[in-house]
């Protein structure tokens, strides 16, 4: 029986029929005499979130997404406030790689982050707010900062200090001597690397993977991209997560190892997506086997050198830490920001939460005696990803009934 997945995961995979309309956009520009500038970010629920000032007036929050070629605003009302005209309309494809959505070109807007400004940036505005960030992630986010903002320069992401640093290609401030250097290729503004992936059938496959900071996951593989990509024995089928325009169907399990440069990551949580070859025009897709997301990338400081097509990585102290996955069977969503309400979106059959009597539609009131108004997505995920055997006490509301129950966490994959 197909089951809902236990963790919300945004993967923004956008394909355009024609990028020529964006040829005049150059992304962030440096102040005079500056060769590097930094932008602080929040790291929330596996997303890199920065503040952006729109047209020198309106403060917004964007997810930094190296897996998206272009910058996208999800809310049309922002454009309406400035009475900006729409240009061409584009067909775009959602994370399921089959749903056709629509976005409008808006030309020559100004986007500012700290001392960096893109004064004449072309962006896309979604016809509808397909993202639904707030419900799935609990974040009040207005869109994506795509690779078009960085591709003229070098981008460093330091997850430890929560800092993005942009360098001119010729900057002497850029130090890479303590980093491992990896071959990388930029295609349609997106960074790809080739690496070795060990599968559960003892096969080691050379895989081409997208470096995707817009993915709140560790690893995703397209099972149809290579006949050797077989599924692990212990998997959970269902909805992998939520992306632009729809659910992502597939499976989640673990693979024995993934080589990331000279570093070997073991027992990696991996999502397996099934993309049918005839779902969309394949000319719009770069041939690849999958993506590397933030839950691998955040084990390193990374430097993406767009002009010279090089990737540099340096591990953090606990880069070998275990890859955790939900151990409760609860998939939840959020409604509201000031008065947060967490709903049980689905329950995995036979999981600890299912056996404890929790049902789809239940409202979470307390977890381990912490009221929901004090909880965040990170808090709840941290509790539900804890050690196997740990007791979780939960208070829920079902219609007009208050129910208290408990269960012990258990490995599901």
Describe the structure.
The protein is mainly beta. It has 3 domains: 3-167, Cathepsin D, subunit A, domain 1 (Beta Barrel), CATH 2.40.70.10; 180-298, Acid Proteases (Cathepsin D, subunit A, domain 1, Beta Barrel); 330-408, PDZ domain (Pdz3 Domain). Helices cover 7% and strands 44% of the residues. The chain has helices at 76-81, 133-137, 294-297, 352-355, 377-384; strands at 3-4, 36-40, 42-44, 47-54, 58-64, 72-73, 89-93, 100-113, 116-126, 143-145, 154-158, 163-167, 180-183, 185-187, 190-198, 204-211, 219-222, 236-243, 246-260, 263-273, 290-292, 300-305, 310-315, 330-335, 341-347, 363-367, 370-371, 391-398, 401-408. Strand 26 and strand 27 (370-371) form a beta hairpin.
The helical percent reads: under 10%
Low-confidence stretches: 1-19
- Shape estimate: globular
Largest sheet: 6 strands, mixed, barrel
Q: Round the mean pLDDT to the nearest integer and report it.
A: 85
CATH class of the largest domain: Mainly Beta
The CATH superfamily of the largest domain is: Acid Proteases
Termini Cα gap: 16 Å
Question: What strand order characterises the main sheet?
Answer: 15-16-21-17-20-19
Number of strands: 29
CATH architecture grouping of the largest domain? Beta Barrel
Number of domains: 3
Helices, by number, come to 5
Alpha-beta content class: mainly beta
Q: Hey, roughly how much beta strand do the residues contain?
A: 35-45%
User: What is the rounded Rg?
Assistant: 21 Å
Assign the CATH topology of the largest domain: Cathepsin D, subunit A, domain 1
Quick overview:
With 413 residues, the chain is mainly beta. The chain is built from five helices and 29 strands.
